[in-house]
Design a protein that fits this description.
The structure holds 2 protein chains of 2 kinds. By secondary structure, chain A is an alpha/beta fold. Chain A has a domain of 132 residues: UDP N-Acetylglucosamine Acyltransferase, domain 1 (3 Solenoid), CATH 2.160.10. In chain A, 15% of the residues lie in helices and 28% in strands. In chain A, strand 28 and strand 29 form a beta hairpin. Chain A is elongated and about 65 Å long. By secondary structure, chain B is an alpha/beta fold. Chain B has a single domain, classed as UDP N-Acetylglucosamine Acyltransferase, domain 1 (3 Solenoid). Chain B is built from 6 helices and 27 strands. The longest helix of chain B is centred in the C-terminal third of the chain and has 15 residues. In chain B, 48% of the residues are buried. Classes of the chains: A alpha/beta, B alpha/beta.
Chain lengths: 255, 293
């Protein structure tokens, strides 16, 4: 039997795993699905067509599956396993596309994940990060406080958004990005080391970043991108970064 | 005023003073202490091992004593201590300490924390500090007496905000802020935040003697006109024999220089910081010392 506080509201139709817990004054809507080991803390809400995978925890007064502004029916929101949504954070449900969050993300206090956003795995979003939907956040992304991602942006894997950064467009994988408008400030070496990248890969990325960005403008020179991609022995991480962010899919570029 | 049908959840083992006012939809956990005259408005959650003193006003939607956001937190029952006469605005969050950081997060007396402030694990706020809206303190931050942080400013791990200093709005604080200074930047895109000058209001609030104030002002002028030469300037002033707050300012800057990236308390990373030993209740400190690391 799920442990449901007598002071919680769990609507008929909600599907709760046997060991799910719901705290006092929490709300679980009629179309919500809570996986094994999920904990919904005091005063938190799970609304809309929301699915929480195993071992997700929603802290006090956070809201998951909130209806996007102006929506006439509940949206959809799919969270994987072991995600943590901290106090006062809001994850909006998306009508089309649904909001998707992968596994093992830490969404800290007061964060906002907008309707239709797609978040990968192992992300850490520090307090008051705002990710507007629809946008794509890849795996292992770290953001610092007050970072903002505009709708339609794509934030590459292993990247780091510094505090107060405002993203409107694409952030290359492995990058450290800062400012408003945002600029690539270097390679996110600390995160890469923690994620087990070798010194050679990090050095190759550093060299490529130095050539491409040089701390000044946001967009690297097209000719330089093509020249790098033409190199046979190009480090595969560098290739991935260039292809995913700067080369439009087409002839000559492997998918 | 009587609340006839107040719905709230107070653990039977929580120690709540009889005249503390607990509003509707509040949740009080089993190891919580709330002192006399403290008011909790609506939907306030107090969990963990939280000790809240007397005459505090805690506004709607505050969450106090929740587990730290630090991934290194091991789940031991660490503490949050809040003193007396503090104002915590709506949706303020304060977390308990971590094992690595000294087991304690502390908010002193007479502080004002406005909407949405976040006091992370192992932070120490002394007395009479004012934190504006959505001010974020990362873990292990010290805010000394009378410091002012304006709206949406944020402090990096292990930084110290000095006595009666003022941090301008939306300033990322990545190193220690010296006492009695205004800290910010005129152009956040191109210039890292730095000391902008003396904090007049802070100097007045400190109510120093005329001689001490004069010496402090002179030290403030000399120390920060060229930060490259800070070390030499400190030595010059100390050799001159400055006293009182001017000497403390010099010592503060000296400690910051000794630290990592201008953050003195980074030296206590992973160790028991002196302020934890000072403020932890004696029996808990003894229990920590007894248990194997």
């Amino acid at each position: 039997m799920p442990q449901i506080s007598q002071r919680a509201v769990v609507e008929p139709g909600a599907r709760l795993a046997d060991d799910a817990q719901v705290g006092p004054f929490a709300y679980v809507g009629p179309e919500a699905v809570l996986g094994p080991g999920c904990i919904i803390d005091a005063g938190a809400s799970v609304m809309g067509r929301t699915t929480l995978g195993a071992k997700c925890r929603v802290f006090p007064l956070a809201a998951v599956g909130a209806a996007p502004p102006g929506a006439d029916r509940p949206g959809q929101c799919i969270l994987g396993q072991a995600n943590t949504v901290r106090e006062h954070a809001t994850v909006y449900a998306g009508a089309d596309p649904p909001t998707r969050i992968g596994n093992d993300n830490l969404i800290m206090i007061g964060c906002l994940i907008g309707p239709g956003a797609t978040v990968g795995d192992h992300g850490i979003f520090t307090n008051y990060t705002q990710i507007n939907g629809p946008s794509v956040i890849e795996d292992y992304v770290r953001t610092s406080a007050f970072a903002t991602v505009a709708a339609g942006s794509r934030v590459g894997a292993y990247s780091f958004l510094a505090g107060y950064t405002s993203i409107n467009g694409a952030v290359p994988p492995f990058a450290m990005v800062q400012g408003c408008p945002s600029r690539v400030r270097g390679v996110n070496t600390e995160n890469l080391r923690r994620c087990g990248f070798g010194d050679d890969d990090i050095r190759a990325l550093r060299d490529a970043f130095r050539q491409l960005f040089n701390g000044s403008t946001g967009q690297p020179d097209d000719r330089l991108v093509r020249k790098l991609l033409a190199q046979k022995e190009l480090n595969h991480h560098v290739r991935r970064m260039l292809e995913s962010t700067y080369a439009p899919p087409g002839p000559g570029v492997s998918p | 005023m009587t609340h006839l049908a107040v719905v709230r959840e107070i653990s039977p083992s929580a120690q709540v003073a009889p005249d503390a006012e607990i509003g509707p939809f509040c949740c009080i956990g089993p190891k919580v202490t709330i002192g006399p005259g403290t008011v909790l408005r609506r939907r306030v959650c107090v969990e963990g091992h939280a000790i809240i003193g007397s005459l505090n006003v805690i506004e709607e939607g505050c969450v106090l004593g929740a587990a730290p956001q630090d991934l290194k937190y091991g789940g031991r029952p660490t503490l949050l201590i809040i003193g007396h006469r503090n104002y915590l605005g709506p949706r303020v969050t304060a977390h308990i300490g971590t094992e690595n950081g000294g087991y304690l997060t502390r908010i002193g007396d007479d502080n004002a924390l406005l909407d949405g402030c976040h006091i992370a694990h192992d932070c120490y706020i002394d007395n009479h500090a004012r934190l504006g809206r959505q001010v974020l303190l990362a873990g292990h931050v010290l805010v000394q007496t009378g410091a002012v942080m304006e709206d949406q400013s944020a402090a990096h791990h292990f930084t110290t905000i000095g006595r009666h200093a003022r941090v301008l709005a939306r300033t990322p604080v990545r190193r220690d802020v010296p006492p009695y200074t205004v800290f910010g930047s005129e152009d956040y895109e191109n210039q890292p935040p730095a000391v902008q000058g003396a904090h007049e209001e802070g100097i007045r609030a400190a109510a120093l003697s005329a001689a001490e104030e004069k010496e402090l002002r002179q030290a403030l002028r000399e120390l920060f006109d060229d930060e490259e030469a800070l070390q030499t300037k400190i030595e010059q002033l100390v050799n001159l024999g400055v006293e009182g707050q001017a000497l403390e300012l010099c010592q503060f800057c000296q400690r910051s220089l000794q630290g990592v990236y201008g953050r003195y308390h980074e030296l206590f990373r992973g160790k028991m910081p002196p302020q934890a030993e000072k403020y932890l209740p004696a029996e808990i400190l003894a229990a920590i010392r007894r248990q194997p690391a």
